[in-house]
Amino acid sequence: MKKKNAEHFIDLESKRLGVNLRDHILELVIEAPPTISHYTGAFQGSVYGYMHTMDDHIVARLQMGEKENYIQGLSFAGAHQISGDGMGPAVTNGRKGAKIILDMMEEDKKEGK
Q1: What is the pLDDT of residues 8-34, one digit of tens each?
Q2: Which residues contact residue 65 at a Cβ distance below 8 angstroms, ignoring those fewer than 6 apart?
Q3: First-residue to last-residue Cα distance in the chain
Q4: Structure pTM?
Q5: E strand or H helix at 30
């Protein structure tokens, strides 16, 4: 079911963007709280204990933020945005991803796209 839903949304977004996203996906991994709970035994699928490295922490991510928007109208969200991995920052990161896309849409509007 997870794979079916992921493929559906990839196709939907490909159509909306006018870009075949499948041509750019090397590997598709779907993870949800039940999966995490099953394999790690984490309570209700919570992800804790992520350790940032020097190349992957908030300061480095802030410096590289503009360069991570490879496709106009598409942004990282969830656990893979500025604040780091895990379920805790996922909401904040989703909000940041939405803001990035809204800013892109505003730029497009100004440029007459």
Answers
A1: 999 999 999 999 999 998 888 888 788
A2: 82
A3: 36
A4: 0.45
A5: none
